[in-house]
Amino acid sequence: MLVSPTAAVRPMRAGEEAVVARMLAAALADDPFIRWIAGTDPDRATAWMLAGLKMAERHGLVLVDETLDGAAVLMRPGSMPLPVRENLKLLPSLVRAVGVRRVPGVLRALTALEHAHPDEPHWTGLVLGVHPAAQGTGVGRRVIAAALDVVNDEPAYLEVCEGGPITLYARFGFATHARVTPGHGAPRMTTMWRDAITRRG
């Protein structure tokens, strides 16, 4: 897929995964969902982010700001839920992020979130993050705009912790879709949906 850069936003390059994963772990260190996954351990949060990046490299796209201060992780329509074989590939990263004992509960909570996806084919925004030092500088808006350029007119879906940046996404055409309680200690999530855009000829 060809992607036109939007204000210095581009696809992540080979070899940048570790840097982007650490940036996202720092960006979302206080996010309730990441706290549920990794606690306050940045290495565990980085392992979780790295798993998401690897998944998106195979089945979606990772967009980054040229300075690597911001990133959006996208999954293509039809790619979720992942086949069992793909989930097994991610299991070592999941164990590093949450610990062996928590794996069954975390998997059940993630499955509950997967079941909340609409049936209509759609892009999924897995992660959007901006390094704390770059927050408030417009990086996040640039990355979102670039992601929506890729999505084009197709439907898009994302999940936000309750109390999260719902207003920000609403400015880009997303509306609240549902509220999900995954269980197993996971925070309650608000799902958001952006309809396909019909262009008038």
UniProtKB/TrEMBL annotation:
Pfam families in the record: Acetyltransf_1
InterPro entries: Acyl_CoA_acyltransferase (IPR016181), GNAT_dom (IPR000182), Trichothecene_AcTrans (IPR052523)
GO MF term set: acyltransferase activity, transferring groups other than amino-acyl groups
Residue ranges annotated for the N-acetyltransferase domain, each copy included: 51-197
Name by which UniProt lists this protein: GNAT family N-acetyltransferase
Organism of provenance: Solirubrobacter phytolaccae
